[in-house]
Design brief:
It is a single chain. The chain is built from four helices and 13 strands. It starts with a helix and ends in a 5-residue tail after the last helix. Strands 5-4-1-2-3-7-6 form a seven-stranded antiparallel beta sheet. Strand 9 and strand 10 form a beta hairpin. It has three domains: about 90 residues; about 70 residues, Thrombin, subunit H (Beta Barrel); about 100 residues, Beta Barrel (Thrombin, subunit H), CATH 2.40.10.10.
């Protein structure tokens, strides 16, 4: 039975409506998908920016931590320097040599022979010791006693008779005393002498430099005059300035006067020691 005209109109209208609905739905879905894709891209961009910002902050934090560690290291170094300067300052004004003595005395040794004793001090980390040659005179056996009371055999390397210097070697590793330029020593500066006067081990006396370039028994103007007390047993010990460095080796005193001690200047010690070591060892020590 053929459809009537109004039936065809109704069916056509309904079909058109369905087609329009499908088109509208498709457009809606496309728009929705586009918005979702846009939101997704924006979210990805924000995540990337957040990662970059976070990494940047982490890098900054790391740099700050490194700077902080560097600052702490610098501060510790400066504090150590300040402590050293403070100890030197205390020594320079005569208040206290204890900070310097505490380090220096560990590099001083008692020299013993079968006929007498004196003092020496360590000038290299591997145990070379300088003393006065007259400390060893007449002895057959030479020993050194360090600050820890260890008695060690001492090997005789050589001597310089003109400057009364002898070089010995003991086994072990040590903190050495450093020589300074004796040409820079000034009259009136404070000094200490470390030695074993009359057998009193590791005794310390304080004084000043009373004169420089004094003439010694060898006729050479190579001696520092000091009023720091020197007695038998001090021979061969170091005369030390307020920086903890050796300016001379205590050598002799004039018995007729008081506080008239003399120490061979450090520049002459260096020359004599290097002459001995070069002849005996084939090398320069200091």
């Amino acid at each position: 039975m053929p459809l009537k005209r109004h039936h065809k109109i109704i069916i056509g209208s309904f079909s058109s409506f369905l087609i329009i609905l499908l088109i509208a739905n498709t457009v809606f879905i496309y728009i929705l998908y586009g918005q979702l894709q846009l939101s997704y891209n924006q979210l990805g961009t924000e995540i990337t920016e957040l990662k970059e910002d976070t990494q940047s902050k982490l890098n900054t934090l790391t740099e700050n931590l490194i700077d902080t560690r560097t600052d702490i290291t610098t501060i510790n170094a400066e504090l150590g320097s300040i402590d050293k300067q403070f100890a030197t300052l205390k020594a320079s004004v005569g208040e206290d040599f204890s900070g310097i003595i505490e380090d220096a005395v560990k590099s001083v040794v008692t020299i013993r022979t079968d006929v007498g004793q004196g003092t020496g001090f360590i000038i290299t980390n591997d145990g070379y010791v300088v003393t006065n040659a007259h400390v060893l005179a007449g002895g057959q056996i030479v020993q050194a006693m360090d600050y820890e009371q260890n008695i060690l055999p001492a090997q005789f390397i050589g001597y310089n008779s003109k400057f009364d210097i002898a070089l010995l070697k003991i086994s072990g590793n040590y903190e050495r005393l450093r020589l300074t330029d004796s040409d820079k020593v000034q009259i009136g500066e404070k000094v200490i002498a470390i030695g074993n006067p009359l057998g009193l081990q590791f005794s310390v006396s304080q004084g000043i430099v009373s004169g420089i370039h004094r003439e010694g028994p060898n006729g050479i103007e190579a001696y520092i005059q000091t009023d720091a007390a020197l007695n038998p047993g001090n021979s061969g010990g170091p005369l030390i300035d307020t920086d903890g460095k050796v300016i001379g080796i205590n050598n002799f005193k004039i018995g007729a006067g008081e506080s008239l001690g003399f120490a061979l200047e450090s520049n002459f010690i260096e020359g004599a020691v290097n002459e001995i070591s070069n002849q005996a060892l084939g090398r320069i020590l200091i």
